[in-house]
Amino acid sequence: PTPAIGIHDLSLATGHFVLPHATLAAHNGTDVGKYHIGIGQRSMSVAAADEDIVTLGAAAAAPLIATHGSDNIRTVVFATESSIDQAKSAGVYVHSLLGLPSASRVVELKQACYAATAGLQFAIGLIRRDPTQRVLVIASDVSRYDLDSPGEATQGAAAVALLVSADPALLAVEDPSGVFTADVMDFWRPNYRTAALVDGQESITAYLQAVEGCWKDYTEQGGRDLEDFAAFCYHQPFTKMAYKAHRHLLNYTGHATDEDRAYAAIARTTAYNAVIGNSYTASVYLALAALLEGEQDLDGRPVGFLSYGSGSVAEFFAATVVPGYRDALRTQAHRAAVDGRTELDYPAYRALHTAVLPTDGGDHRIAAQTTGPFRLAALRGHKRIYETR
Ligand code: CAA
């Protein structure tokens, strides 16, 4: 029989700094209730000047390699929508920083916030061909919108690394998947811009349309009934969006649109996203971390995943929580990372946001800020130079 394949271990990393929404509200005159209740966000992680998707991705993945070694990791998939290079995969830098075997393939995947789920599915396909190999899937993003734009309150910076293998300790991923693609311009970032462009209301509508689309395909492919699921992990650009999406799914499937039921189902998945902000590709797996590290006992229970990436592509899939999963969690390290962030005041946040990396190809040292394990130390001849702290 085919062995169970899925997530064996999960580790997260966050940007070094944190900006409370109360600070943003005091600056721009917004009632803080709009942030705390209206979009469901308390604070956002902000990357230090010497952090980027590579340092965050490597910081997330390092504990997995420390625990499980790197033997048989033959593929590294790096998912991001805040790429640092048009040609070279950010994963190659991580491969180097972590000393992974040269007998491996490394690739970067992009489709807005969805790409890590594509990476997970590709990993499962590879492991089905050869159950002895393991795949490292890294989701890493620094979310940036223009200052004083509506999207500003939904920024964030974080990475999640997943070790995918046969006979996993956390989560066995099931067939089938429900998939959906529609060409919409709800959110995009042209190559010449460092901040994303977004049509906020259009993006919410596009997300809800994608929920319908991939659920419809999931049921047509013979998926589980909605009632089977013990919990749901949604992509959370802001945590209120997960409530909106779940309420929409309940409504679409003919269930009463019950606010309390939608809130109760989603509340267990928002602990990290509410204080980290939008981490794009990592967001739905931060929802998973919050769920597994919470109080509910999920031994043997099915969880539904809704992964959405603007533009747009979405996928609904189910996974069963492996009995005994609690022994494989990294709850303490994750909470320490989030609690250990350094708070920014508004001027310091604004200075970080407006700082631009030099593009002249000269030799530029970057002052040390982060206390994370890896840092971007210099730019030299248009090359990024990383170091292990
Ligand atoms: N107290 C409590 N609630 C309040 C309030 C107050 N004082 N003031 C306003 N609110 C509520 C509003 O009623 C509204 O709630 P509902 O959505 O339930 O009606 C909520 O706060 C937000 O208010 P607005 O819609 O007026 O907010 P806005 O237009 O200024 O910005 C946003 C909201 C469009 C989401 C904006 O933050 C944005 O553009 N974000 C980036 C795009 C995004 O995240 N889109 C999500 C879907 S796309 C996706 O998922 C991919 C991705 O990652 C980008």
UniProtKB/TrEMBL annotation:
SUPFAM superfamilies in the record: Thiolase-like
Transferase keyword on record: yes
Binding annotation for (3S)-3-hydroxy-3-methylglutaryl-CoA: 31, 145, 244, 278
InterPro entries in UniProt: HMG_CoA_synt_C_dom, HMG_CoA_synth_N, HMG_CoA_synthase_prok, Thiolase-like
Domain Hydroxymethylglutaryl-coenzyme A synthase C-terminal intervals: 177-261, 268-323
Active site: 81, 113, 235
The keyword Transferase is assigned to this record: yes
GO biological process per UniProt: acetyl-CoA metabolic process
GO molecular function: acyltransferase activity, transferring groups other than amino-acyl groups; hydroxymethylglutaryl-CoA synthase activity
Coiled coil (residue ranges): none
Residue ranges of every copy of the Hydroxymethylglutaryl-coenzyme A synthase N-terminal domain listed in the record: 5-167
Keyword vocabulary terms for this entry: Transferase
Family recorded in the similarity comment: Belongs to the thiolase-like superfamily. HMG-CoA synthase family.
Protein name as annotated: Hydroxymethylglutaryl-CoA synthase
Organism from which the protein derives: Actinacidiphila rubida
Biological classification of the source: Bacteria, Bacillati, Actinomycetota, Actinomycetes, Kitasatosporales
